Amino acid sequence: MKDFIPQIEPWIDEEERTQLNRVIDSTYVTEHNLTKEFEERIKDLSGARYAVAVTNGTAALYCCLKALGIGPGDEVIVPNMTFVATSNAVIMAGAKPVFCEVLEDTFCIDPDKMESLVNKNTKAVMPVHLYGQSADMDSILAVANKHSIKVIEDAAQGVGVKYKNKHVGALGDCGILSFYGNKTITCGEGGVILTDDKNIKQECYRLKNHGRDKKGIFKHDHIGYNFSFTEMQAAIGIAQMNKLNKIISKKAEIQKVYHKELIELKDVFTPAHISEDSTPVFWFTSYLTDRKQELQSFLYEKGIQTRDFFCPLHLQPCYSNMEIKGDFSISEKIYDNGISLPSAYNLTIENQYRIIEAVKEFYGR
């Protein structure tokens, strides 16, 4: 077998080592100058007034929910097609996630179906900017404003993504970015809360800092937890931020080559649609095919890793005891047919053409 081609991997080199040496030289390892620097870089990127770094994206979502006063008896509408952390954060906050069908073209939450789910218990909607493109934020915000519900953006996959030239995660009441190891840029683990609201920022900081407004004091006026960031995460994040433009450009080039070389297969291997309102970052390059499992096995035998789409929430075994209503046939079709090809920054053009030729071979072209 030729060298194995992973579907995704981070770009880590001496830049990260250089930034980590700053931590070692300083001897500060938890939330010091590098964490502040990383938060400032995220504010500059997103245009948000405040950025609060926490241990991971799930904790960031939880803090947003609790900062908005959401808890037992409340409902939060989430897209049915998303990673399970979106809905689990709602459960963690004590509220009930309500699954909403997605749009067939963008895979993001359907604003019309979202509105049909609003009731007296609905306190928020949590749109997810899926696979590197934005949800329809104008329509989502219009529904939210009409019904006086909050908007928490799950932009875990949205670093660098824009909706009508505004960075995702900074359009609603609050939002989050994630820096898990497979994201466009990574801290290993990590999340950042974005908001323009000082009260939300303050409450999120308290929630992640044992209920305190600053460290080093031992009288706690509020209930809080430990979702601290680390200087090591910040160091890697700063190094990754220095590479972000190159990563975005390379991923766009990878997507362009796939599209050009595989367009002849569009009747059986259809590229994912990109909304005109979205400036995407091709975290993954994704396709739809009704022979997904066969293709995945064929490519794996040739040393090429691919990835399934997220399993729809209504099919998750962990939610089998929940009362779930609705028609989720669109989500099921997307899941059954969705496949993501290798798209790491380190993917060479030679290996990309190896993937392309293998896909063509599978379809007999």
Describe the structure.
The protein is α/β, with parallel strands linked by helices and 365 residues long. It has 2 domains: 14-238, Type I PLP-dependent aspartate aminotransferase-like (Major domain) (Aspartate Aminotransferase, domain 2, 3-Layer(aba) Sandwich), CATH 3.40.640; 244-362, Aspartate Aminotransferase, domain 1. It has helices at residues 14-26, 33-46, 57-67, 85-92, 111-116, 137-147, 198-208, 231-262, 292-301, 329-337, 349-362, and strands at 50-54, 75-79, 96-100, 122-125, 150-155, 162-163, 166-167, 174-178, 191-195, 270-271, 278-279, 285-288, 307-308, 338-341. Helix 4 (85-92) links the parallel strand 2 and strand 3. Helix 3 (57-67) crosses helix 7 (198-208). 49% of the residues are buried.
Q: Report the radius of gyration as a whole number of Å.
A: 21 Å
Helices, by number, come to 11
What is the oligomer described by this structure?
A: single chain
Assign the structural class, choosing from mainly alpha, mainly beta, alpha/beta, alpha+beta, or little secondary structure: alpha/beta
In angstroms, what separates the terminal alpha carbons? Answer: 23 Å
Approximate helicity band? 25-40%
The residue ranges in which pLDDT falls below 50 over 5 or more consecutive positions are: none
The CATH architecture of the largest domain: 3-Layer(aba) Sandwich
Average pLDDT over all residues: 97
CATH class of the largest domain: Alpha Beta
**What fraction of residues sit in β-strands?**
5-15%
Q: In CATH terms, what is the fold-level topology of the largest domain?
A: Aspartate Aminotransferase, domain 2
How many structurally independent domains? Answer: 2
Specify the biggest β-sheet. 7 strands, mixed
Q: Find the CATH superfamily of the largest domain.
A: Type I PLP-dependent aspartate aminotransferase-like (Major domain)
Tell me the overall shape: globular
Give the neighbour order of strands across the main sheet: 1-9-8-5-4-2-3
The SSE order reads HHEHEHEHEHEEEEEHHEEEHEHEH
What is the strand tally? 14
